[in-house]
Amino acid sequence: MKLPPISVDRKRTQSEMDLPSPPVTPYTGTKKTKENTSDQLEREAVGGSSRDPVLFPRHGHNVDIATDEPLFGPIIPPTAEALVEQHIDSHMARFENKLNKPTRDEYLLALSCVPIVSAQYNRNPAAWAREERETLERQLAMMQRSRPSELESKLKKIAPAPTKRVVGSHNRVQRTSRVKRTPRSTPKQKAHDTFNSPSPPSNKPPRAIGTNRDDTDYDSIKDYCPPLNTLGNNAKGLKADWKGQMLDLSHDPDRHLLSPAELSLAATLRLSCATYLCSKRRIFEARVRTLNVEKEFRKTDAQQACKIDVNKASKLWTAYERVGWFDRKHFQQYIKK
């Protein structure tokens, strides 16, 4: 787009363009003939005219300019300026990551604040202390006036203490004497030659410690366990950590069904051989179910499948996972195609 040309009456002559700023107002209410000479403009500016005065006259004219009064208010002494600059340079690094940084005007405002408390105190310290004491006592009196009314509504009235009554000797009721009880004799105990407590005679075989009677029928659970020969050199990995003394399985009737590594694992977890076999078969039965539904076999699945402590089930899962008994290759014949 092209702008329209400037009208003739708005064009500036070369002499007007050479004048210093600000430009002279061309109109003062009525149209007048422009004076193009610079001498006429300066004469009107000095002698007084309706045109704007010249702020920066040409050299050669003596114009009185007040140099003792500042143009924009009082000037702060150089010492204060230097103090502000020094303080800003030394402390502004702490406000680099802050949103509200102190500005220069705020520094100058802080310098303009002059404390007068010490000056008033030094005039008459006794009068100052007396006035402060009167103010404090007046505040305490106002607090005490409002306090009782509030406390009366909150305090609970307590009944007076009962008075002691003196009862005459003739009104006393004589108590009946209690019947004396004969002390019971301590039953005689039979002395034993040793500190070992004698076991009561019983025809039942002793129950193995750490077993669960409800989960010892391993023959009722289908056996999906990998063969023991798949351990190979990984037999050392079939172990677990458990607090407490190992269970003695030397006389367990099912110990021949466990490998030496499994026997040590069951003794560490304080499981009888029958309970260990039940838990083992339940874990691998659950593994086959997850393979048929293409699901990952996790530690929680083993805990839900067993009927023993969940921590012991977790130890079995970890040991079987370490020796690779959860690999898919051990269960190819049981996976439904």
The ordered H/E elements are HHHHHHHHHH
What value does the Rg take, in angstroms? 55 Å
Count of alpha and pi helical runs: 10
Low-confidence stretches: 30-35, 205-213
The coarse silhouette is: flat
Judged by helices, strands and strand pairing, the structural class is mainly alpha
GO molecular function: chromatin binding; transcription coactivator activity
GO cellular component, one term: Rpd3L-Expanded complex
GO biological process, one term: regulation of transcription by RNA polymerase II
Pfam families: SWIRM
What is this structure's SSE topology?
Blueprint: H1 14-18, H2 38-47, H3 78-91, H4 104-112, H5 117-123, H6 125-154, H7 260-268, H8 273-292, H9 299-305, H10 310-323
Helix pairs in contact: 5-6, 8-9, 9-10
Task: Summarize this entry quickly.
With 337 residues, the chain is an all-alpha fold. The chain is built from 10 helices and no strands.
Describe the structure.
There is one protein chain. The model is unreliable at 30-35 and 205-213 (pLDDT under 50). It contains ten helices and no strands. The chain has helices at residues 14-18, 38-47, 78-91, 104-112, 117-123, 125-154, 260-268, 273-292, 299-305, 310-323. α5 crosses α6, α8 crosses α9 (299-305) and α9 packs across α10 (310-323). With 337 residues, it is an all-alpha fold. It starts with 13 loop residues before the first helix and ends in a 14-residue tail after the last helix. It has a domain at 217-334.
